[in-house]
Specification:
The protein has 463 residues and is an alpha/beta fold. It folds into 2 domains: 309 residues, 3-Layer(aba) Sandwich (UDP-N-acetylmuramoyl-L-alanine:D-glutamate ligase), CATH 3.40.1190; 144 residues, Protein-Tyrosine Phosphatase, Chain A (Alpha-Beta Complex), CATH 3.90.190.20. The protein has 15 helices and 17 strands. The strands form 3 sheets. The protein has a 9-stranded mixed sheet with strand order 2-3-1-4-5-6-9-10-11, sandwiched between helices. The chain has a 6-stranded mixed sheet with strand order 12-13-17-14-15-16, sandwiched between helices. The chain has a two-stranded antiparallel ribbon with strand order 7-8. The radius of gyration is 22 Å and the shape is globular.
Length: 463
Amino acid sequence: MRRIAAIAAAKATAALSQRLRMGGGTALPGLVAERVDPHIVPEMARRLGQGSVIVTGTNGKTTTARLLRGIVRAAGLRPVANRAGSNLMRGIATALAQAAGLDGGFAGAKRRLGLFEVDEATVPEAARALRPRLVLFTNLFRDQLDRYGEVEHVAAVWRDAVRTLGGSATVVLNADDPSVAALAQAATGRVLFYGVEDTSRASEGLEHAADARWCSSCGSELVYSAVFYGHLGHWHCPTHCRVARPSPRVVATRIEMEPEGTSLMITMPGGEVSARLPLTGLYNAYNALAAVAAAVALGIESEAIERGLGSFTAAFGRQERLTVGGRRVQVILAKNPAGLNEVLRTITADGEEKDVALFLNDGIADGRDVSWIWDVDFDLLAGKVRSLTVSGNRAWEMALRLKYAGLDTPSEVEEDTATALRLALRATPEDGNLYVVPTYTAMLQVRELLARWARQPAFWETS
C-alpha cells in the first residue's frame, strides 16, 4: 500500500507541477515518492523484466542515453528512462513512478528496460538500488570541482561502485580514456571496451585541458600516438609496467564530419553498422560509439542498432537547431574545459567567420567555481568570429578571459539573458547562423526564450 501511495503521490505532484508551470516536474515527484516509500527505486527496478542500465560519465550522458533509447525501442523493448536529464536518485524515482500503473506494476513488464542517465557522484547509490545488468562509462574530465573534487576522487568512487556490481553486471568502458579503461581492474564480471580507430582527425600532442597524463599503475607520464580530444586517444605507459590502451571490440573505423552532421562506420562482433547523425563534433561520434557498445553488450542485433541510430534527434540544448527571426540558431551546451574546447574546435573547423554567443553562469548545476574557463583554448576563435556576445551572471569574467586569450573586446557584454540573445540575433545576418554556447543553467534559460521566439517570430525583438 505504501508503494501504491508513493506512485499516486508522484503522479499527482507531476500533474500539479505541469498545471501550475512551477517546474520540478522531473525531480519533485520522485522526491515526494521517496518520502512516502524510501524503497521505491529498488523495489520498482526489480519489476523491470529486462533489468536496468546505467549511463554515466562527465560529458555526453544525455546524448548517449538518448541514442541508446532509440536503439532499444528499435529492438522492440520499452525503455523506462529519466529522459529529461534529472540524473540523481529522485529523477530515477520519478521515471519509475511515472511509468508504473497505479497498481504498482508496469504495462508490458517483460519488455521493460530501465535506462538511466546517472550523475557521476550518484553512481554508487544508483548501482546499489538498481542492481543494473550493465553500466556504461563514457569519459572522465574535470567538471564542477567544487562539487566533485579532482578526477582522481571521482575515479576512486567509480572503482568502488564497480567492485560492488558483482559478476552478473557488464561494464562497458571507453578504451581511449585511461581513467575509464582502468576501471576494468575493479570489475568482476564481463568488460566490453569501445574506442576510435580512425585517426584521420587525431593530433599527436595532448591539449592543455588534458586530465589523464599519468599511468594509473606506476605514475609515469603516458605516451600518446594519437589524441582525439582532451586526453582521449591511443595511449600507453613507456615503462616496464606496460599498461596500455586495451584493444576495443566495438570500434569506429570511419568518422566523417559534415556541415550538418556526422557519418560513421562502426565495427563490432558479428558485423558493421553505419549511421549519419544530425550532430557534429568528434565527441558526438564517441557518444554514438558508446551507445552502440552498450547495445552490443545487451545482445541487440545490428539491424536494430542501425535503425535506432537512424531515428535519432538531438536533445534540447545539445546541438538543437531552431529558427528565430530568419536566423538559424544552434544551442551547444558546454560545461568544462575539454567539452568547450571541442565545441570551439567544431564551430571553427571550416575557417569561416562565425556569430557566437557565450553564456557563463555559476549556479549549483554549473559549478560555483568558474576558474575552469582559464583552461579553455579560446584562441581557437581568433580571426574566426564576426560577432561575439558574452552573457550570464559571470559575463565579465568571461570577457576578461577572452581579452587574455588575445581576442578583441567582445562586441557586446550583457548580463541579462534575453537582452543578450536579442543583441546576438541582431548581430547575425538574416539567413545566417548563430552559435549559442551556454553552461547548464544558462542553457535552460536560453532554450526557453529561443523556443518561444521561434513560435512567435514577430515578437522576438520585444517579448
